[in-house]
Task: structure prediction
Amino acid sequence: MNRPSFQSVRTAQFFSLLAPALLLFTVGLILPLFLGLYYSFTSWDGYTKDFPFVGFDNFVKIVQDPHTLDAWWFTIQFTFWNTLLQNVLALFFAVILDTGLKAKTFYRTVLFLPCLVAPIVAGFIWQHMYIDVLPGLNSLMGTKINFGLFGKADTVLSGLLIVNNWQFIGYWMLIYLAALQSIPGELYESAVVDGAGTWTQFIKITIPMLAPAFTICIVGITAGSLRVYDLLVSATQGGPGRASTSIIYHIYNTALNAQQYGYGSALSVSLIVVLLLIALVQLGYLKKREVQL
Amino acid sequence: MAVVSVAFLLPLYTVVVFSFKTKKELYLDNPLALPHSWFFDNYSSAFDRLHVGTTFLNTFLYTAISVFLLALLSGAAAWAIARNRGRFFRFTYVYFLLGILIPFQALFLPIYIVGNALHLTNTFYGIILMYVATGLSFSVFLMTGFMTQVPVELEEAAQIDGCSIYRTYFSIVLPLLKPAMATLVILQAFAIWNDYLLASLFVSSSALKTLNVMFQQLFSTTSSNYSTAMAGVMISVIPISILFLSLQKYFIKGLSAGAVKG
Result:
């Protein structure tokens, strides 16, 4: 009788350590992925038992539906500005804090604190900031600035960008700070000996050495911004009208409120495709720059 | 920088201050003014009217149990992956990584559908399973990265002495993974405590809802006395702040892992 080899028993045991996670992950994420793909080819309404097959109709609808296109446009704008502003500002503050400023720990904590509140709470806090608290500054300063950024379609994006940046600049700043602190001082010293000024040092030493941090922050902020939802629920409810409806908010509305699970699934699939594409492009470009250095 | 600090602190300051204001002060006084006294009624009414006690307990339990399961499952899986060169194990690593490229927010609809079909919605364990399932990708990724810090020689020595795989993992490897676990705990607890999307989909009944779900229900009713809500917010921020303060360095380490060259 053949006894299983020592090696195969070991492997089986290792597998048993792996199995629970594998199972849960498959049921919780991979299964929904394939189901979502299947539903996107149907016009299921979420309740009845039939799944009428409609082929690519849902996907065609995506490019024709003005609500979807608006949602994508908002999400893209939000993502673009966020990625730009948060990165620049986080790096800016990290550089300032790295210069051996007094009370550095205090500033670091203050900038970081906002990310501890949930985005849904942040939306609520800022709603009141815009409506009640900031107008209070008007009476202190004798000005009449209209702070109601959430109330108008053309300022709602700025209003939301302010909240999101307030929340997360400190978070990304910590990453840049850690990266900055790991740059060996000798590099700067030899640059000074060679006659390089501060700006040259920044461009030629700091920025290249920060390449891995750039990768993490840029990819992270982009991915996070594309998924914005919680903030919108409490801050603007997608409004005024539909001015601040992100793609995930739109999926929620379409599927759960308007009961179009088929179309909603198609929208989800399109979001996943976009996320994958952007991730691949960004990682490809950024990793290449890292390796060159 | 000082100006920047004031600007950043202002919203949080308003939460603190408002949580102590009476309804009258809310309307009549300048919003930036300090409250007249420490009006704790907002806090007690948060407990009574808003059932903050139950909701807090729910959120706490979901977070604690989910994080515990994540630590258990991802640690074991990551170790199995790190110690096996075979094609199958390499494949499972990439398989888990898929979940990082495809975040659960993008899949929330089919996840909700699956959860519904399996009768996991509005149950205590349903939401926990969902949090664990969606958190596994990142956890496995993080833990596999930390496995290089566990010396293989130690494990080999243990196995020569007759330890089984399981014994090796639990008695030798796990204790060495403490910093890794700390990083995992703080990062995942943070994400789960502050989650809204999954919680709003899976636990809507008042007995089971989380703090964030309760807040949103509160925020959306045009309630004029939001100082109670502010008190609730203060209460919800406390545990995560405590956890963060105690595990700060692991949080920072986890964030910047990979950002530091070399």
Q: What stands out?
A: Residues 53-256 of chain B form a domain with the MetI-like fold fold (CATH 1.10.3720.10). The first helix of chain B runs from residue 2 to 18.
